Amino acid sequence: MVDAETIANAGFKLSIAKIKHFEVRPDDIFLLTFPKSGTTWMKEILPLVMNGGDIDAITGTPRDVLVPYLELQLSVDDDPVIRVAQKQMLIPDGFALDQLQSPRLLSSHLRSEFLPRVVEEKMVKVIYVVRNPKDVAISSHYFLKAVHLSGFVASKWPSQAKAYQDFSEFFPEFLEMKGRAQMLHYDGTKWHEHVLPWWERRHHRNVLFLKYEDMIRDLKACVRQIAKFLNVRLPDGAVDKISDHCSFQSMKNNQMALKSNYCTNILGVKAEEGSPFVRVGVVGGWKNTFTVAQNEMFDEIYQEWIKGSDLEMTFEL
Ligand code: A3P
After folding, report:
1. How many domains in the chain?
2. Taking 60 as the threshold, does the pLDDT of residue 144 lie above it?
């Protein structure tokens, strides 16, 4: 049980008290992920499943408006840095979660203890996406490189504005979720602390637990699974249409999915060349980076992480 009122790390200050007491509607749908696990991908898929595959209807709308981050939106008035970041995510001034039509799609990277109580108490639908932690580590390394080198971070947190020299410098800090790696997750939550509580609840009626690797393997099957879970009857052809639109190649050419504006103005990278939100999108990319020793170390720590759990992850296809 976590009793924090706020979380303030090297990055944002989040109002946990506000988040915990957020008025959840019974038909809210939550997308929950550890960072770098396919959040952007799912933010493209979910609105299309909900609207029956109408791509035109979402074309001009920022994905963080279609599926806003609960914790950022609720903390926006308390933290000027979040306000700036939200602006660059193209979230309009005055945007408020309570003005959204039901059913709302909401997203969060928060660990389960920090979420509004009703989410824990099986009252709303939760889609949880997990990705194998070796690829999460690689994806996080790229993301943090952009974060640490960005002029925005340098101006707000000079002490953080130093990129890791290489993966080997980042790796131990990722495992411990300490140092500059904490900018990945608000409160230093480690991968297994985020994933396991939802894995334990995977059989609950209100939970759909999806693996990134299964989405790579068969996106159409996952789209069908999501539609069924959300009680949406998709029109003929919609599964193909959604899957094509949400393919990696298609999202690589989609400025909204790339979060082009945020990339340019916060991360200081050109989205077409290096958006960390749609980057390489593969399973097993870690094999190109991990040394044998790092892999052995990871496997040992991973066994500790998942001890006592029957969670099985796919590390390569
Ligand atoms: P990589 O950095 O390994 O390429 P998040 O949105 O949670 O930050 O996750 C980002 C990761 O999801 C990135 O992984 C990104 O490439 C991947 N991703 C985004 N869209 C994807 C898609 N359509 N297909 C496969 N992977 C995708």
Report:
1. 1
2. yes
Identify the pLDDT of residue 244.
98
Q: What is residue 97's DSSP assignment?
A: G
Spacing, Cα 259 to ligand 1 middle (Å): 12
Query: pLDDT by residue (tens digit) across 82-95?
Result: 999 999 999 999 99
pLDDT, tens digit, 9 for 90 and up, residues 202-233: 999 999 999 999 999 999 999 999 999 999 99
Q: Ligand 1: distance of its center to the CA of 178 in Å?
A: 23
Active site residues: 109
Cα separations (Å) of 16 from 5, 114, 209, 233?
5, 7, 25, 36
Tell me which residue has its CA closest to atom 24 in ligand 1.
248
- Asked whether residue 314 is assigned to any structural domain, the reply reads no
Q: Is residue 316 part of a domain?
A: no
Burial of 282 (0-12, 13-18, 19+ CB in 10 A): middle
- Examine the pLDDT at 100 and tell me if it is beyond 90: yes
Segments forming the whole domain that contains residue 93: 6-305
pTM over 0.85: yes
Give ligand 1 pocket residues (Cβ under 6 A): 33, 35-41, 135, 139, 142, 246-248, 251, 276-281, 285
**CB-based contacts of 316: which residues, under 8 Å, 6+ apart?**
283, 284, 287
Asked if residue 292 is part of any domain, the answer here is yes
Amino acid 1: pLDDT? 42
Q: Which residue has the tokens 């009680």?
A: 231
Q: Are 125 and 28 a contacting pair, CB within 8 Å?
A: yes
CATH number where 106 lies? 3.40.50.300
Asked whether residue 317 is domain-assigned, the answer is no
